[in-house]
Specification:
about 280 residues, 8-stranded mixed β-sheet, 11 helices, 8 strands, globular
Amino acid sequence: MAWTVVAIAAAAYIAILLLLRLNEGRLIYFPGAQRSLLSPPADLGLPVQRVQFSTDDEITLVGWLIPPQRDSTGFWILICHGNAGNLSEFDRPLHYAGLHRLGLGLLAFDYRGYGESQGVPTEAGLYRDAQAAYRYLRETVGVPADHIVLFGHSLGSTVAVDLATRVPSAGLIVEGAPTSVWERGAELYPYIPVRWISGSRFDSIRKIAQVKVPKLFLHAEGDEVIPIAHGRRLYEAAPPPKNFVQLHGTHSDAFEVDAGRYFGSIREFLASLPSARQ
């Protein structure tokens, strides 16, 4: 009887592992039901241009191109958003407006399977999507590599880190960044061997040492999704030049709760970049 109970328990555990593995994508990607992009609130004054471009595996992506104001810094920021919702949802337009007021041009894009973009999200696919967005800025908009700043929030930070290892840029900014998706998964599911069953890695802690450009790490002390310890470990693993800024707020509202420090840190970071003096 005891062996039967053990066998049943083992079979049930293996079934759970298999179920988690087969449904991994649903635990990572939350594109939501909103497919059409929402217009940004008129009072933000964002000169949004809807653009589309293709990845190297022929997936069509949709993004917002927001040209800089007249008092431009000359820098453009390529935004890799988090894993939930499309580029127009939540307070993202408000965030774009804050960055735009710093004199930045912006390109925010939706990953495959998000918003109006085609396809189904995968780790390799998201990396290709970021590469395509970068290529659009370089080849279509004509922005020099040393005037492109890569930005990633939450899951998007892992995409931005990966891109920073593969393309030249002026700098990298990450906010609410995990060391890796599998490490965060292991914290959330301590009785599951996430490291061994996960097909998705998003392993920023392994890649960050390859990123030689200046780096700014932003992390809210009250981040309930990605604990600030992740951001500090990622910062410690990164080579200089780098800076870590602890913010008030939670995972998605630090740019509002601690706006002065948030945007002030980015302004100082931009001013410190070598190409800012060109």
